[in-house]
Amino acid sequence: MKKIKLITCLVLLLAAVHLQAQDNALEKNSHYTGASATKKQYKAIYQLDQNDPHIIEKTFRNINNALSDPRLTGKLQVELVAFSGGTNAYLKNSNYGEDLKKLVEKGVIVAQCNNTLQERNISRDSLYNFIAIVPSGNGELIIREQEGWTIIKP
């Protein structure tokens, strides 16, 4: 009988210790405020390769959220490169001209893949006039990644 009581006490003690450890972890987690931006500069390139309004809008929202993160203020360089279906967001008849213009005004490089223009027979004049042209979207991603840029595909 004493052994059963002793085992029961040990189990209850271990359970109490475990619950306290869980409470400590939850408390510690609730006070976490995110990583510290200790570098002088951060660089991110966003890939836009779909003509899905939800993806396009999410991409713009993600970029704006990063640009407004107080940890990254004055430290973040951003590029948005479109190719394939993402090209449609850059066409003059799209609904995204004002959003794109605002990104450029915030310092975002907004670039278009020339290969996609050629493959889809789209003239440069069909795009908003402030869009930059790069030889290839994939090439831009490869080069930027090797330069230390973070690639983000929303």
From TrEMBL:
Keywords: Signal. Residues 1-21 form the signal peptide. InterPro entries: DsrEFH-like (IPR027396), Sulphur_relay_DsrE/F-like (IPR003787). It comes from the Bacteria. It holds the Pfam family DsrE. This is DsrE family protein. It comes from Danxiaibacter flavus.
